[in-house]
């Protein structure tokens, strides 16, 4: 297979993830400073509770806009930070939004109640009935509380992704209601034409980012490339490879190690999106994914017909050679996590050591291809088999297989328990954190 080779970043280069993360922090800090400036410029109410509530509301609105940016799936951010980390930040930012807006509602309500004869509950009802935009704000807060509840870890684990995602879409309803509330009664929003322009700009950028990254770009790419199933090839009794073809695939900015959200447009699967990594480096003419039958959806992939239309969102992910810091690498795979590892081996320059951890030889998917690639590229390949205990990827074992592992980049992909154990082993072996690259493939964080 012919692949497009990309040289690794020089070891002295500033890491792309550091650049992107620092840029996000700088953007957020600069906007906090602007919000504080307009807040103080608008003047204070006589009641300290109301002042505190207004500030909490402004910061909550800014965090809500920032939260949208984190999940807009903008290619520049995604390739440098990764969807898993962006989604995690989005989740924690969401809880910050929830607490900020709760504080806004509580402080404002108690502040007005302090200067009236009403108790806080009746004060809130009076505000909702008499002040334009407050009722919309109450509804928005209720939606955010529900979304926060279903996003808590104990609840999220009990919901199907499609159910969780459908509930989460109401976030956009909350955003619109919160914005209209801010327009109607926001003192800082209406204090000057500059403040009004600023807030319209913040919300405009946030919503435009989501619209572009989540809708326009996927629709454009699928219209342009016209993805279809070319062939379905069984790799074992429960693993299948699917070859995807299309138009102008040489212009698709996909790299080894990345993944797509695949929708196969059959009558019983069109509504399901599954994240599968590329199992071969893109060659400009076809894409390949390899999936294990872990559920009804992935098991049905074996029965896809050639010619089936495919809607693919992506490429996504920062698990690529873009983040290399050393000229040599170690690639560690567990189970079907070998798919992005196999693709990376195809693209990487420099000496590589591949460690493939499986329960038995029969579970070593794509092992024949790994052998051929390792021979062609002068890489070392170690197949590690056996039960989970004793740990065959413990620090001592890793340093035995790769004595100079602390001087190499380590790319890791496999089941979560295995990844957690290996990350701990790498830490004990003295591998610097910035040389360890992994990505947790999860749509909902």
Structure description:
The chain has about 450 residues and is an alpha/beta fold. The protein has three domains: about 210 residues; about 90 residues, Translation factors (Elongation Factor Tu (Ef-tu), domain 3), CATH 2.40.30.10; about 110 residues, Nucleotide-binding domain of ferredoxin-NADP reductase (FNR) module (Rossmann fold, 3-Layer(aba) Sandwich). The chain has 16 helices and eleven strands. Strands 9-8-7-10-11 form a five-stranded parallel sheet, with helices on both faces. It has a three-stranded antiparallel sheet with strand order 1-2-5, with no helix packed on it. Helix 4 packs across helix 5.
**Helical residues, percent:** 40-55%
Order of helices and strands: HHHHHHHHHHHEEEEEHEEHEHEHEHE
Main sheet?
5 strands, parallel
Large-scale geometry: elongated
Structural class: alpha/beta
| Count of strand segments | 11
> What is the count of helical runs?
16
Mean pLDDT: 88
Count of separate structural domains: 3
> Rounded to an integer, what's the Rg over CA atoms?
25 Å
**Beta-strand fraction estimate:** 5-15%
Distance between the termini: 34 Å
Strand order of the largest sheet: 9-8-7-10-11
In terms of per-residue confidence, which ranges show pLDDT below 50 for 5 or more consecutive residues?
Answer: 1-12
Subcellular location: Membrane
InterPro entries: FAD-bd_FR_type (IPR017927), Fe3_Rdtase_TM_dom (IPR013130), FNR_nucleotide-bd (IPR039261), MRET (IPR050415), OxRdtase_FAD/NAD-bd (IPR001433), Riboflavin_synthase-like_b-brl (IPR017938)
Domain FAD-binding FR-type: 222-322
Transmembrane segments: 24-45, 51-71, 92-113, 133-155, 167-185, 197-217
């Amino acid at each position: 297979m012919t692949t497009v080779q990309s040289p690794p970043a020089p070891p002295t280069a500033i890491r792309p993830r550091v650049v992107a993360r620092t840029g996000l922090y700088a953007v957020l800090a600069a906007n906090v400073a602007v919000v504080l400036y307009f807040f103080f410029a608008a003047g204070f109410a006589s009641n300290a509770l109301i002042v505190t509530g207004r500030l909490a509301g402004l910061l909550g609105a800014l965090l809500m806009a920032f939260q949208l940016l984190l999940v807009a799936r903008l290619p520049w951010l995604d390739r440098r930070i990764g969807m898993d980390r962006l989604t995690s930040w989005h989740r924690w930012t969401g809880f910050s939004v929830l607490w900020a807006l709760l504080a806004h509602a509580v402080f404002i309500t108690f502040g007005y109640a302090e200067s009236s004869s009403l108790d806080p509950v009746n004060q809130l009802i009076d505000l909702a009935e008499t002040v334009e935009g407050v009722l919309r704000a109450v509804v928005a807060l209720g939606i955010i509380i529900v979304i926060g509840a279903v996003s808590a870890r104990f609840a999220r684990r009990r919901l199907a992704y499609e159910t969780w995602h459908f509930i989460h879409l109401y976030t956009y309803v909350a955003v619109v209601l919160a914005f209209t509330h801010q327009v109607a009664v926001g003192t800082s929003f209406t204090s000057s034409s500059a403040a009004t322009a600023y807030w319209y700009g913040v919300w405009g950028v946030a919503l435009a980012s989501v619209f572009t990254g989540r809708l326009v770009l996927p629709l454009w790419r699928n219209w342009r490339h016209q993805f279809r199933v070319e062939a379905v090839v069984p790799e074992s009794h429960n693993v299948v490879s699917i070859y995807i073809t299309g138009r102008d695939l040489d212009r698709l900015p996909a790299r080894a190690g990345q993944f797509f959200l695949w929708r196969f447009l059959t009558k019983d699967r069109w509504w399901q999106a599954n994240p599968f990594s590329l199992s071969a480096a893109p060659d400009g003419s076809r894409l390949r994914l390899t999936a294990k039958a872990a559920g009804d959806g992935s098991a049905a992939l074996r029965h896809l017909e050639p010619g089936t239309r495919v809607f693919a969102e992506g490429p996504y992910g920062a698990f690529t050679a873009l983040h290399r810091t050393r000229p040599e690498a170690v690639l560690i795979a567990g189970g079907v996590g070998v798919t992005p590892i196999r693709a990376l081996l195809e693209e990487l320059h420099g000496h590589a050591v591949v460690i493939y951890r499986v329960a038995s030889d029969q579970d070593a998917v794509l092992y024949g291809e790994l052998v051929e690639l390792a021979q062609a590229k002068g890489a070392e390949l170690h197949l590690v088999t056996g039960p989970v205990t004793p740990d065959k990827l413990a620090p001592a074992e890793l340093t035995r297989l790769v004595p100079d592992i602390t001087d190499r980049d380590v790319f890791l992909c496999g089941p979560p328990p295995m990844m957690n154990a290996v990350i701990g082993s790498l830490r004990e072996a003295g591998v610097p954190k910035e040389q360890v690259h992994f990505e947790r493939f999860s749509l909902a964080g």
